[in-house]
Design goal:
Layout (H helix, E strand, L loop, with lengths): L45 E7 L3 E8 L6 E3 L1 H7 L10 E5 L2 E14 L2 E10 L8 E2 L4 H4 E6 L4 E6 L3
Parallel strand pairs: 2-7, 3-6
Antiparallel strand pairs: 1-2, 1-5, 4-5, 5-6, 8-9
Length: about 160
């Protein structure tokens, strides 16, 4: 990609890179990149939904089409009733701001009256403060439309 940029293009300080599907290896990587908006409209696309394990909670999650898995904080997982079993191995995810340890949990999600179960990464580190709604399962069940001007996300159920 870099070779295709004309020489007279102003230097903007961007890093261009391409990650090919065949280059994906474990561990899972979460890339939460916060950039200052070039426009004055700065809207984080959050959506309210209901999570349930043993306990339930209504939460607003950042809808992140770049996240393969959904992610919840350590405290939210504990509030929902998640627990670690003896001998269970922790996985590691790496992102731009460092790495976190997580346990994978199947969590019941209710979104606009539709209930389904999806794998969710339950963070095991205290400094993780973002909760993400990732692609796994969710993006297969819904057509998702982002309407930034209205600061609205529309989820359209795909299954009868």
């Amino acid at each position: 990609m870099k070779d295709g940029i004309p020489a007279d293009t102003p230097k903007l300080g961007y890093l261009l890179d391409r990650i090919f599907e065949s280059e994906f290896v474990e561990p899972v990587r979460f890339y939460l990149v916060k950039m200052r908006a070039l426009k004055s409209h700065d809207w984080p696309p959050r959506y309210e939904l209901h999570l349930k394990v043993q306990n339930s909670a209504r939460v607003e999650m950042l809808v992140d089409s770049g996240a393969e898995l959904s992610l919840i904080t350590k405290q939210l997982g504990e509030d929902l009733g998640c627990s670690r079993t003896a001998g269970e191995s922790i996985s590691k995810a790496e992102g731009v701001r460092g790495s976190i340890e997580y346990l994978l949990r199947d969590i019941e999600i209710e979104l606009d009256g539709h209930t389904f179960t999806a794998p969710v990464a339950w963070a095991q580190t205290d400094f993780c403060d973002e909760i993400l709604l990732g692609r796994e399962v969710v993006f297969d069940l819904f057509d998702i439309e982002f309407k930034q001007a209205e600061e609205m996300i529309v989820f359209k159920w795909r299954r009868p």
